[in-house]
Amino acid sequence: MTTPVIELRDVSRRYDDGPPALSDVSLTVHAGEAVAILGPSGSGKSTLLNLIAALDRPDTGTVTVDGVRVDGMGEAASARHRRAKIGMVFQFFNLLDDLTVADNVVLPAQLAGMARGEAGRRAAELLEALGVARHARAYPGRLSGGERQRVAVARALMNRPALLLADEPTGALDTASGEDVSALLTELNADGQTIVVVTHDLALAQSCTRRTIQLVDGRIAGDVVAEPTR
Amino acid sequence: MSALGRVVRSGVGRRRVQTVVIGLATTMAVTSSVLGGSLLVASTAPFDDAFAEQRGAHLSAQFDAGKATVEQVSGTATLSGVTDAAGPFPTASVTPDTSVGPENPPTLTVVGRTDPGGSVDAVTLTEGTWVDGPTEIVLSADGPLSKTPTGSAVGTRLTFPDLPGAPTLTVVGLARSVSRTADGWVAPSWITSPEGYQMLYRFSAADTAEQVDAGRAAVTAAVPEGALNGSQSWLVLKKTADRSIAVFVPFLIAFGVLGLFMSLLVVGNVVAGAVGAGTRRIGILKALGFTPAQVVRAYMGQALIPAAVGTALGVVAGNLLAIPMLAETEEVYGAVTLTVAPWVDVVVILGALAMVSVTAWVSALRAGRLRTVDAIAVGRTPRPGRGQWAARLTARLPLPRPISLGLARPFARPARAVAMTAAVLFGATAVTFAVGLAASLNQVQIARNHDSADVTVGSMGPGMMGPGGPSRRPAADPAAISAVIDAQPGTRAHYSTATTRMTVPGVADFTKVVAFDGDATWDGYQMTSGRWFDKPGEAVAPTTFLTATGTKIGDTVTLKDADRTYTVKIVGDVFEMSNDGMVLFTDARTVTITDSEPQRAGHFIALQPGTDVTAYTNTLDTALKPLGVNAEPGGKNQASETLILINSLTATLTLMLVAVAAMGVLNAVVLDTRERVRDLGVHKALGMTPRQTIAMVIASVVVIGAVGGAVGVPVGVALHDVVLPAMGDSAGIGLPASVFTVHNPTGLVLLGIGGLLIAVLGALLPATWAARTRTATALRTE
Ligand SMILES: Nc1ncnc2c1ncn2[C@@H]1O[C@H](COP(=O)(O)OP(=O)(O)O)[C@@H](O)[C@H]1O
Ligand SMILES: [Mg+2]
């Protein structure tokens, strides 16, 4: 089998003196997989995603992403790691309101120091591919929720990340837009993009992924790979 | 109300930076206001009190006994406009010979008066009794003879060898006249042949120089031509009395005003910022039933608590700092004014709190008016971004993206950016002003010391005449000494001076006359206006002398010593501070200073470049030994206490202003960072490194710092150009051009960069906070 893109070993994380948000989680995700993480609110889904993105550090255990240990990384190293390997999509889009759609999309490339022209071309391509090219010079505030999430996906893909992480990407969208985003993720995965999507929406999980991981109170309660249905 | 109190307290506790900034800004403003105000009061109060109590003379006039009769002089008492007059009192100039007391006794102006009291110039006896008969004298308590090495002069005897019969007088008392009408008082019968008559007038109107001049003109017209040969306005005396501390007032006022603007700016900015950042909180408070007035009060409280603490600290600091400065006035009148006038404290406290309240109220009004629904709804809809043009523009700059993002930032919050710019501007103004002031005072020091001489012989320089007097007096012929100096290899230039004391009719204080032999212009003497004298009969004098004697450049002045009268033409206003500015410089051939007269002399030598000073001094010293004088390396004078005090005060106040400016920036950047915590999180999630984050935050203040510096520096220069002459004016001295031209382009550019530094300094801390923010936490908001 291919090398794992994500490898968690006995990861625990606990905030202040609350109950552990994650306890002894071990998980392996291979390149090209699409994984849905399901679970009720507060079960530790976002915490898990943040640890994979090196936005947060586990108290114990190891996190390896694309062959690199990220659990002990410093801030600067993890930022560089993130912009090279990971694209993130959030529930509330997290677009920067004072930058245009195009400027939002090129930002990761600019932070990584990509040449201006090249970055511009790639952004235009992505916006085109995701069907929001006509909004390139608009500000995010003008766009519908579905359009904003497409822009967010474009931005996440800007640096051709090995891994796309999405935290409740349809949580703030109406059903139609939600389905639209879910189709987009399915398409990306079909093109080989490794995806981990957090959701509490079973329908979304089933429509775009084959493997679902159930989190309950910070522990993995189930890891199911569905039989190919088609 | 207790609920309101809790809201306020938790607000203050949670905004530590704002609280400290408000406190510091108020402390700074109050300290300088208390200092400036109390010095302003103290500089005039003792003189005014004493003048009122003694019914001081608005004009003291000296008439030539040869040109006017007693009757003509006493007739002036009834002129219209004269409300009261005393005199005529007979006057004489006499030179005592003392066995004790100063080595070189001065010529005294003595006045014959039977009674110290009267309706004008009621002289205060500070010790002993008034004269009772022709064997007694009362000396001025401020004069050089009033103290002997062993204590008071009362009981000592003065002999007057120049007078017929060489009479001797016993000092029976010391007295002080605010109007400075005499160096000594004797029985009128003692002055057998008066040189002149003294008349003391009070006018119905004498508040301005014009009014006093009008009175003087009326008196002049009432007596024969030339009979009035000297007069002194009380306004001149008042100015002299104020001098020692009045010099502080203009720059303290400058700092007071800067501090005030700064603290109002900070208070306004902080409160407005707190209201802006707390919109949600306000909505919740209102939803819970707070009235708009209560909400406004809650926010005012957040500003008023630290402002009250700052005011208290400022009052304490101002009072403590005032003590060393007020101590200087105390010497003048012996009055006990060592504390700040209480009403100054009260006025400053009330004024500061009132202004802070009004500013806070205006800034908090918005919170009261905010509609509850809007307040709670904030954050749901993305704000319509301001300054998007700037974001587009900077995005095109060939700069790393974090920097261009930062550069666009101020335009998104223009009001806040303007306030930050103003804070930096004030800081840069203060620094520029302070640096200029220090440089100017250094120039004053150079001009005052004129101690460029590499080697001196026999005496200290004319600028260094202290009350103690010199320890040596060259007995040798100055020409012989000059010849030795000329013969010495390595001599580039030299001149000599001889110093004596003379009087100008009508002026109570004696004048120090310095006679120069040789070109002295290389030795740091600086002209305020006019030129240095270049032939016998010409003289230069400082502004103080010109004011006291009522002369200007081009006029002639009469000088008297014990037995001769000289008339010199004033050709220049020279900067000179010795003898309180009662100094006249002239050519040695103008006046005759014989060996028998009180004098001091010195030779001042400039060496050729590369000459070893020590070797030169030693050789010269040996060569001069037979003449009984010594050569010494030119000494550097110490800075005057006043200048040291001004410099340290300036440094302290500037540091406070800069700290407040930097903290103003800090506060604004903190607010900005807090508001943008989500955006910062997004940046990080997209891979912004801590260093890139710091660069972005710092870049957000670069434009502000640059603009603040670029505007603040010229403002500081302008302030310097206004305050410095005002300080000179308060001190009654004219300042030479070298004192004003202290700024150079390189220095100004560096100061402008200083503005940038203030801004960067203020942004540094929040920048590192921003870089350290836990991204996961930041993104969790909402
Ligand atoms: N930054 C934080 N500080 C304190 N507690 C947190 C923080 N983030 C998450 N938690 C807590 O950890 C648990 C898991 O949270 P999270 O991972 O956000 O759950 P989910 O995304 O599944 O809803 C919750 O109980 C939550 O309150
Ligand atoms: Mg979550």
Structural commentary:
- The complex is a heterodimer of chains A (230) and B (782).
- With 230 residues, chain A is of the alpha/beta class.
- Chain A has a single domain, classed as Rossmann fold (3-Layer(aba) Sandwich), CATH 3.40.50.
- In chain A, 35% of the residues lie in helices and 27% in strands.
- In chain A, the strands form two sheets. In chain A, strands 6-7-8-3-9-10 form a six-stranded mixed sheet, with helices on both faces. Chain A has a four-stranded antiparallel sheet with strand order 2-1-4-5, covered by helices on one side.
- The longest helix of chain A has 16 residues, at 175-190.
- The model of chain A has no long low-confidence stretch (mean pLDDT 89).
- By secondary structure, chain B is of the alpha+beta class.
- Chain B folds into four domains: 1-58 and 206-223 and 234-381, no CATH class; 62-70 and 85-203, no CATH class; 385-448 and 640-782, no CATH class; 452-633, no CATH class.
- Chain B is built from 22 helices and 22 strands.
- In chain B, strand 18 and strand 19 (565-574) form a beta hairpin.
- Chain B starts with a helix and ends with a helix.
- The chains are: A alpha/beta (230), B alpha+beta (782).
- Chain A binds chain B through residues 46-47, 50, 53, 55-56, 75-76, 79-80, 82-84, 88, 90, 92, 94-100, 103, 107-108, 110-113, 139-141, 155, 159, and chain B through 381-385, 387-388, 391-392, 395, 400-402, 408, 412, 678-679, 681-692, 771-772, 774-776, 779-780, 782.
- The complex binds adenosine-5'-diphosphate and magnesium ion.
- Adenosine-5'-diphosphate sits between chains A (15-16, 18, 21, 39, 41-47) and B (776-777, 780).
